């Protein structure tokens, strides 16, 4: 069994708890002394960092939500001076503003090591060729995996997204042994490779997949179609990016790197659930310098699993995600909230405030989002070109906020169900195979 940082990956429970407490105290002091948002939160609760005497005292600390990052846009949650920030990333927020995260040099180093741990855990090493077929730029998935693969010493191919035939050509020509992309794109890669009759020419052995929900059946499909082992990756930009948790070769739950993140799984009363019970994943960063986050409500529902794993790692594990505590949708790796769509729709006079979101998976196995919107009676002139202009206007406004291409279907006023509740507002027809 190979490890990247065996000292931390196989640490005894008492040693780990001691390290976590030391790092939790340091993080609490950093946010209290340097981030006005957290200082106010601590004061409202009548606590200071000195009140943290044991790991159980984490329950005294305030929680943080995605809206807090949006409300403090862009840099007000940073705990270090701007000149110490060497990189920023951003993800879509619940309004037009993204949530911005920052990294110091040490943060980037830690992140690279976490990703190297993950890839080593999936059986990769410096002899591998790693193709990173995701977006680079502000999305954390691109550079996160890239730096980890390089840190591990693998030959790294920053192929980005799109041009599927070229992606497959590179895989063959460069002898690519591992690929990172969304599971839906991997299904399309597999389908295209089969159509081109080149599956036997691929050297792939490992696929790393994340950024959108996928099931055990999808895993089997990918493993059979591409002759690989398919690993689940979990991360979120607010905590670091990819690398927070990852599957080992046992493929039985995701190991969370608890020397860097303190894990809680809470019920609706904010009480820690028992092992095996489902609840909301709440994470505290223990080593982040630029953007330390206290008790972040991820909105992801999971189960805490026994820490004993036959791979030898002693970190806590979580099950694959079981759903969301809020109404966030994930479309092609991008977070989409119905509230964002509503904010756009209500500002367009030609349509009513009633809408419905339809999610489908197209022939290329990629997610498609269609928004059905009711046309105001006085907006229909009888001219098809006027209808097309309204539809284009709505599509453009949605794209500017959601950062994803959205199909718009204009329907007659009164035709969208008025029943309250997510089941009517969102129709998810994607077959999670």
From TrEMBL:
Residues 333-430 form the AMP-dependent ligase C-terminal domain. Gene3D superfamilies: 3.30.300.30, N-terminal domain of ligase-like. Pathway: Aromatic compound metabolism. The keyword Nucleus does not apply. Coiled coil: none annotated. One of its GO terms (biological process) is phenylacetate catabolic process. It holds the Pfam family AMP-binding. InterPro entries: Adenylate-forming_Reductase, AMP-bd_C_sf, AMP-dep_Lig_C, AMP-dep_synth/lig_dom, ANL_N_sf, PA_CoA_ligase. It comes from the Archaea. Keywords: Ligase, Nucleotide-binding, Phosphopantetheine, Phosphoprotein. Its EC number is 6.2.1.30. Residues 78-283 form the AMP-dependent synthetase/ligase domain. This is Coenzyme F390 synthetase. It comes from Methanolobus tindarius DSM 2278.
């Amino acid at each position: 069994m190979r490890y990247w940082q065996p000292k931390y990956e196989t640490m005894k429970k008492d040693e780990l708890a001691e390290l976590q407490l030391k790092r939790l105290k340091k993080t609490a002091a950093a946010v209290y002394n340097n981030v006005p948002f957290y200082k106010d939160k601590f004061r409202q609760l009548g606590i200071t960092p000195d009140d943290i005497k044991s790991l159980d005292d984490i329950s005294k600390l305030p929680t943080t939500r995605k809206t807090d990052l949006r409300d403090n846009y862009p840099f007000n949650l940073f705990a270090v001076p701007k000149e110490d920030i060497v990189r920023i990333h951003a993800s879509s927020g619940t309004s037009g503003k993204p949530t911005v995260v920052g990294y110091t040099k040490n943060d980037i180093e830690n992140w690279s090591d976490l990703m190297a741990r993950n890839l080593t855990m999936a059986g990769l090493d410096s002899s591998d060729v790693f193709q990173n077929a995701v977006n680079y730029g502000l999305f954390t998935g691109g550079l996160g995996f890239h730096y980890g693969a390089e840190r591990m010493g693998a030959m790294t191919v920053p192929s980005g997204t799109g041009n599927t035939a070229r992606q497959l050509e590179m895989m063959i020509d460069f002898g690519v042994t591992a690929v990172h992309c969304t599971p839906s794109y991997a299904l399309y890669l597999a389908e295209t490779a089969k159509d081109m009759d080149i599956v036997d020419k691929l050297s792939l052995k490992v696929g790393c997949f994340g950024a959108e929900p996928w099931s055990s059946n999808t895993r089997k499909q990918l493993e059979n179609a591409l002759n690989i082992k398919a690993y689940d990756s979990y991360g979120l930009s607010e905590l670091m990016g990819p690398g927070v948790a990852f599957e080992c070769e046992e493929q039985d739950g995701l190991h969370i790197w608890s020397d860097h993140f303190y894990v809680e799984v809470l019920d609706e009363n904010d009480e820690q659930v028992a092992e095996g019970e489902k609840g909301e994943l709440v994470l505290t960063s223990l080593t982040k310098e630029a953007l330390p986050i206290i008790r972040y409500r991820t909105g992801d529902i999971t189960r805490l699993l026994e820490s004993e794993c036959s791979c030898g790692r002693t970190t806590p594990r979580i099950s694959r995600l079981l759903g969301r505590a809020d109404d966030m949708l994930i479309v092609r790796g991008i977070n989409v909230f119905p509230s964002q769509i509503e904010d756009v729709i209500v500002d367009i006079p030609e349509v009513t405030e009633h809408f419905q979101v339809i999610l489908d998976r197209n022939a290329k196995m990629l997610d498609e989002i269609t928004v059905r919107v009711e046309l105001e009676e006085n907006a229909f002139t009888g001219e098809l070109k006027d209808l097309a202009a309204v539809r284009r206007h709505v599509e453009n406004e949605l794209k500017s906020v959601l950062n994803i291409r959205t199909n718009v279907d204009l329907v007659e006023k009164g035709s969208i169900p008025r029943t309250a509740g997510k089941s009517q507002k969102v129709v998810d027809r994607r077959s999670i195979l």
